[in-house]
TrEMBL record:
<keyword id="KW-0472">Membrane</keyword>
<dbReference type="InterPro" id="IPR052157">
    <property type="entry name" value="BCAA_transport_permease"/>
</dbReference>
<keyword id="KW-0812">Transmembrane</keyword>
<dbReference type="GO" id="GO:0005886">
    <property type="term" value="C:plasma membrane"/>
</dbReference>
<keyword id="KW-0813">Transport</keyword>
<feature type="transmembrane region" description="Helical">
    <location>
        <begin position="206"/>
        <end position="227"/>
    </location>
</feature>
<dbReference type="GO" id="GO:0042941">
    <property type="term" value="P:D-alanine transmembrane transport"/>
</dbReference>
<feature type="transmembrane region" description="Helical">
    <location>
        <begin position="68"/>
        <end position="88"/>
    </location>
</feature>
<comment type="similarity">
    <text>Belongs to the binding-protein-dependent transport system permease family. LivHM subfamily.</text>
</comment>
<dbReference type="GO" id="GO:0015808">
    <property type="term" value="P:L-alanine transport"/>
</dbReference>
<dbReference type="GO" id="GO:0005304">
    <property type="term" value="F:L-valine transmembrane transporter activity"/>
</dbReference>
<feature type="transmembrane region" description="Helical">
    <location>
        <begin position="284"/>
        <end position="302"/>
    </location>
</feature>
<keyword id="KW-1133">Transmembrane helix</keyword>
<keyword id="KW-1003">Cell membrane</keyword>
<feature type="transmembrane region" description="Helical">
    <location>
        <begin position="154"/>
        <end position="177"/>
    </location>
</feature>
<dbReference type="GO" id="GO:1903806">
    <property type="term" value="P:L-isoleucine import across plasma membrane"/>
</dbReference>
<keyword id="KW-0029">Amino-acid transport</keyword>
Length: 309
């Protein structure tokens, strides 16, 4: 039981990071029907920005109070990552919006490769480490296993990740449900042409959607850096594939579905690695995705598309 609870905490933590990245996929797809395959690399860039800002503040400027340092790092990472997201949408996707459906998809793959290699050339291919900054945790229970005594605890970093994810999910749900931007996004999701005729600035709404998704990716990037303490130019591809899988599993286009899918992918990976074989954890996650889509083609919370005649 103790081992199960510890793996549950680990899975929720990993799933929270996947869920934050998956929201960016599902928001963009919900409005313009495009899979932004470069979104995982936006997440990767945010990790590098966070690491660079953290080192500048602590090593160069001499800041020592960690909460203030992390807050500044988060704000700067969100600002620059949002600018990256806006630039990618403005230069790569907007000119192709009226083109055939494969054109934006090919461009997204090209942008992903471009961003990966840009970081590899400018920052190097070696991993970039960061010593643990937030240590300690809250013991929950202890017990015995076949390998010896075990203490179940939730680390402060895991607690921060889970709480931050819940808060951001609540805030973004309120933004989409209660604000004028959210109404514009829902109008564009239903019918972009009609929304434009009714006065909605479609281009501005889509750009802000990319900015919001990139900001969430920046939060996930900082949390990934603090949790694992090592990043490289390839983490965006792996996390992006997992987050896209989570968005499809939960129902792409559904905000709660993206978060649910992220949590499920994280739990499947952690439990499979903990109880079976770590080499096959990805196989397990994608196999369950395939099984779910066989019986629920729209995902767990997705709505089937109704074609108007």
């Amino acid at each position: 039981m103790e081992y199960f609870v510890q793996q549950l905490i680990n899975g929720l933590t990993l799933g929270s990071i996947y869920g934050l990245i998956a929201i960016g996929y599902t928001m963009v797809y919900g409005i313009i029907g495009m899979i932004n395959f470069a979104h995982g690399d936006i997440f990767m860039i945010s990790s590098f920005i966070a690491l660079a800002v953290f080192l500048i503040l602590t090593s160069v400027l001499g800041f020592a109070f960690l909460p203030v340092v992390l807050l500044i790092v988060l704000l700067v990472a969100m600002l620059f990552t949002s600018a990256w997201g806006w630039t990618v949408e403005r230069l790569a996707y907007r000119p192709l919006r009226g083109s055939f459906r494969l054109a934006p998809l090919i461009t997204a793959i090209g942008m992903s490769i471009l961003l990966q290699n840009f970081v590899r050339v400018t920052q190097g291919a070696r991993v970039k480490p960061l010593p643990p900054q937030i240590q300690g945790g809250i013991p929950l229970m202890d017990g015995m296993t076949d390998a010896g005594p075990i203490v179940v605890q939730i680390s402060y970093m895991q607690l921060i990740i889970i709480v931050t994810t819940v808060v951001l999910m609540t805030v973004f749900s309120l933004i989409i449900a209660k604000t004028s931007l959210g109404r514009a996004q829902r109008a564009c999701e239903q019918d972009r042409k009609m929304a434009a005729l009714l006065g909605v600035n479609v281009d501005r709404t889509i750009s802000l959607t990319f900015v919001m998704g990139a900001a969430l990716a920046a939060v996930a990037g900082l949390m990934f850096l603090l949790l694992y303490g090592v990043i490289d130019f390839y983490i965006g591809f792996l996390a992006g594939v997992k987050a896209f899988t989570a968005a499809v599993l939960g129902g792409i286009g559904s905000l709660p579905g993206a978060m649910l899918g992220g949590l499920l992918i994280g739990l499947i990976e952690v439990f499979w690695a903990g109880y079976f074989s770590v080499e096959y954890k990805d196989v397990a996650a994608f196999s369950i995705l395939a099984i779910v889509l066989i019986f629920l083609p729209s995902g767990l919370l997705g709505k089937p598309e109704v074609e108007k005649v």
